[in-house]
Amino acid sequence: MSDVVIEQPGLQGSPVGWIEQFADLEKVNVIQEYDTGANCFQSCQCCVPSWRHKTFKITDENEQEILKGEDETEGIFCCCSSVILGCFGCGPSLTYEFKDQLEQRVLKLTHPIRCCGRTIEMSGPDGNVLAAVNKTFSICSALDFDIVDNDGETVFNVSGPSCLSCECGGITYNVRKDDNDVGEILVSWDGPCGCCCCGCCDCAMWKFEIKFQRDMDVYQKLMMVGSVFLIEVMAERMREGI
């Protein structure tokens, strides 16, 4: 893979300043919050799944914001529609869009309905696919993923925990490339009780801490960052039974 990240097909037409900020980083944070005002029935969140509007921040090691994003999914899926979809083994499709500090759209992540596959695609503003993250089947782990490039070649393997238990101290995902450890993803939750991994708190906040080698290609760093969004989606839907 070429080290000239700016020439990656999916990044054509994208402002280059934001991607350069990844060059010297060893850690990136992704913070996701729920806009609980978008809930259909907030009081029922513990009982049935519901659609909740999400906002995101991607920050550097010093908590300086690089990108900000939000859920641009069309339509609102309330508790009732989520239950109906869950009965058929499906969940709603999702679209997340990200902007840089100049309010320019630079990234888009899309996730189809569950019955059409367990994958999330990352694309640039020109619509070309940068990479994809696919959930893989594993007997040993409920949350394993492959990160593939725009040619469909596997770049990273991400291994998660054997089950999605209520790990109040956080969960660690190991990232490997060619059978070598190259990074890790730490997942934690925050809320009024200090633990929202069960999805019961209206003001739940997810935080992903992505660690990688400083000299890693910035395009590959971005691929690792993109993987956390499928981790979040799949973990959330597993808890809600969708």
From TrEMBL:
Requisite cofactors: Ca(2+)
UniProt GO cellular component terms: plasma membrane
Protein name stated in the entry: Phospholipid scramblase
Keywords of the record: Calcium, Lipoprotein, Palmitate
Pfam families, sorted: Scramblase (PF03803)
One Gene Ontology molecular-function label: phospholipid scramblase activity
Domain of life of the native organism: Eukaryota
Similarity field: Belongs to the phospholipid scramblase family.
Record has Protein transport as a keyword: no
InterPro entries named in the record: Scramblase
Described function: May mediate accelerated ATP-independent bidirectional transbilayer migration of phospholipids upon binding calcium ions that results in a loss of phospholipid asymmetry in the plasma membrane.
PANTHER family named in the record: PHOSPHOLIPID SCRAMBLASE, PHOSPHOLIPID SCRAMBLASE-RELATED
